[in-house]
């Protein structure tokens, strides 16, 4: 099968960052599908004029589309270039190679993909990765997305054949936006179980218990809840990964706010802000923790808890989004009501004081990831999705 994967943004320059983003997700999907024998091409906007038009990597072809500014740009600034992106795709799919199915990623990539196949019989699948309406609901005034995102995402739901959600919460949100339930399926992201394992090096640590929080250093990621919960936990270290590079953390407004909160709460010496680290180092950081805490106000996918679980570390998280789907309460970790700082602190304190329970949760977590959340399973699920939409559009097609 010929598969076109469309995303708007190129991968970030330099080393990979703490968390897995849309670009890394698409690259891994492309490699997995290629390994299953499909002819895969990834299309992204050119953001570096020094790079070649085409690159062959991991069994698939990466095409850089020359639309918009030749530099990284805010998502909102790319909306005017969507029609041009779509026209470029139409032109390149009118020759000897045309996709059997197109898969858009994020809302800008999806708009370009839908624009390109509008007058063809090529089916389009869409993964939003996050939804503006859901972010707005959970983040309120701290939501920073462009104003046109939400109406454009609603329009996109009417233009796709099928939407791939990454959590049960996202399925519910998409149906509220107008998609028929039969046109939505859940395909969670996978985990590299060769890299994320319980065995291997661990980052150095103090003797006291370590709670690890991973994510962007920005309002809405819930680090303030963890800082407040420390008062109920006792002598434990809270290590926060993500955000700006380590040498710039002290200049970052959110970092200063969290440090001030920790000082006011009386736990200043228990909080450590590390900043961004290469994703390749994340297994060692997970292994160094007694518990990984996932407390964002919004979580479309459950990548961070899955990575932690693959390393044999129990997760305490808010019962929402991808966290609620991936963490099995009292089996691989604990789920607490979102925003309930007291329940969060009490749960963490009890788990940190119970070595046997953490050991049992960690073993169950590894089994759950290896059985249900490998990239091989993700690739197979997407393969079946593509076959389904191709048959719906072209019943006589060979897939």
Determine and state the CATH class of the largest domain: Alpha Beta
* SSE order: EHEEEHEHEHHEHEEHEHEHEHEHEHHH
User: Any guess at the CATH architecture of the largest domain?
Assistant: 3-Layer(aba) Sandwich
Q: So what's the overall shape?
A: globular
Number of domains: 2
Number of helices: 14
Total E-strand runs: 14
How big a fraction of the residues is strand? 15-25%
Which fold name fills CATH's third level, the topology of the largest domain?
Rossmann fold
Helix content: 25-40%
Largest sheet: 8 strands, mixed
Q: List the uncertain runs.
A: none
Spatial sequence of strands, sheet with the most strands: 3-4-2-1-5-6-7-8
Q: In angstroms, what separates the terminal alpha carbons?
A: 6 Å
- What's the rounded overall pLDDT mean? 92
Q: Which structural category do the helix and sheet elements fall into?
A: alpha/beta
Pfam families: Glyco_transf_4 (PF13439), Glycos_transf_1 (PF00534)
Domain Glycosyltransferase subfamily 4-like N-terminal: 21-195
Organism: Micromonospora pisi
Region (Disordered): 1-25
Give a written overview of the molecule.
The protein is α/β, with parallel strands linked by helices. It folds into two domains: 2-190 and 374-393, 3-Layer(aba) Sandwich (Rossmann fold); 209-372, Rossmann fold. It is built from 14 helices and 14 strands. The chain has an eight-stranded mixed sheet with strand order 3-4-2-1-5-6-7-8, with helices on both faces. It has a six-stranded parallel sheet with strand order 11-10-9-12-13-14, sandwiched between helices. α7 (223-233) crosses α12.
């Amino acid at each position: 099968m010929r598969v076109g994967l469309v995303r708007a943004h190129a991968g970030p320059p330099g080393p990979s960052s703490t968390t897995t983003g849309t670009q890394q997700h698409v690259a891994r999907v492309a490699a997995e599908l290629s390994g299953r024998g499909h002819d895969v091409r990834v299309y992204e906007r050119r953001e570096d004029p020094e790079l070649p038009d085409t690159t062959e990597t991991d069994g698939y072809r990466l095409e850089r589309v020359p639309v918009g500014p030749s530099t990284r740009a805010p998502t909102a600034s790319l909306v005017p270039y969507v029609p041009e992106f779509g026209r470029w795709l139409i032109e390149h799919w009118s020759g000897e190679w045309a996709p059997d199915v197109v898969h858009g990623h994020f809302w800008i990539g999806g708009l370009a993909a839908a624009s390109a196949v509008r007058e063809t019989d090529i089916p389009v699948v869409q993964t939003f990765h996050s939804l503006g309406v859901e972010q707005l609901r959970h983040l309120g005034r701290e939501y920073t997305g462009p104003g046109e995102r939400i109406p454009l995402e609603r329009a996109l739901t009417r233009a796709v054949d099928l939407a791939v959600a990454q959590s049960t919460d996202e399925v519910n949100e998409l149906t509220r936006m107008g998609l028929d339930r039969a046109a939505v399926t859940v395909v969670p992201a996978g985990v590299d179980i060769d890299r994320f394992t319980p065995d291997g090096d661990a980052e150095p640590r103090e003797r006291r218990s370590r709670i690890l929080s991973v994510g962007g250093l920005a309002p809405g990621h819930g680090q303030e809840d963890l800082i407040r919960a420390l008062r109920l936990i006792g002598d434990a270290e809270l290590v926060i990964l993500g955000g700006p590079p380590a040498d710039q953390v002290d200049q970052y407004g959110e970092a200063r706010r969290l440090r001030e909160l920790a000082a006011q709460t009386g736990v200043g010496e228990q909080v450590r802000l590390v900043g961004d680290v290469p994703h390749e180092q994340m297994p060692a950081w997970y292994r160094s923790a007694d518990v990984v805490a996932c407390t964002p106000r919004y979580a479309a996918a459950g990548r961070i808890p899955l990575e932690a679980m693959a390393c044999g570390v129990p997760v305490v998280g808010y019962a929402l989004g991808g966290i609620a789907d991936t963490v099995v309460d009292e089996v691989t970790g604990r789920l607490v009501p979102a925003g309930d700082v007291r329940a969060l602190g009490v749960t963490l304190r009890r788990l940190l004081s119970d070595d046997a329970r953490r050991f049992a949760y960690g073993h169950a977590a590894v089994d759950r990831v290896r059985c249900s959340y490998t990239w091989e399973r993700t690739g197979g699920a997407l393969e079946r999705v593509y076959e389904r939409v191709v048959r719906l559009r072209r019943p006589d097609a060979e897939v």
